Amino acid sequence: MNAKRRWLQFRLRSLLLFVFVICLALGLWRGWEYLPGTLYFDSQGYPHGTGKKEYFYDVGPLMKEEWYRAGILMRGKWYRPDGSVVAESIFDQKTGGIDYYLRQDGTVRAKMSGKFDPTERMYFADGPATYYTSDGKVEKVVEYRLGVKVEVK
Question: Across residues 119-128, what is the average pLDDT?
């Protein structure tokens, strides 16, 4: 009787351990994109996972940093070649964000308002986009709606 009881305890412990391991594996599978360090871009350029993407000037210094959570852009920070900050923008799915495009000398080429599209899980130009000359003067303002140009001012 004692041996039968030990065997039953061993089976119950093994079953509980097996259930725990399965639940842990399913949890990791379901929430893998939320784990830091899982950021990658697929062949179409869409982001997946959580982490930071860095862009560099042709001459080497850091130009831009983007932070993603579960494949969605959360924050961007732009730098001049000397390392000083040009701008920083928080991206929110409800309110959108501001995106900047820099030239190789660190001057702002364009500043665009972005809006989140839940079907694509990405931000698209939405609203006024201001283009600047290399000396900082406004060259033109273009209006966008979800990435499509609608009006030139």
Answer: 90
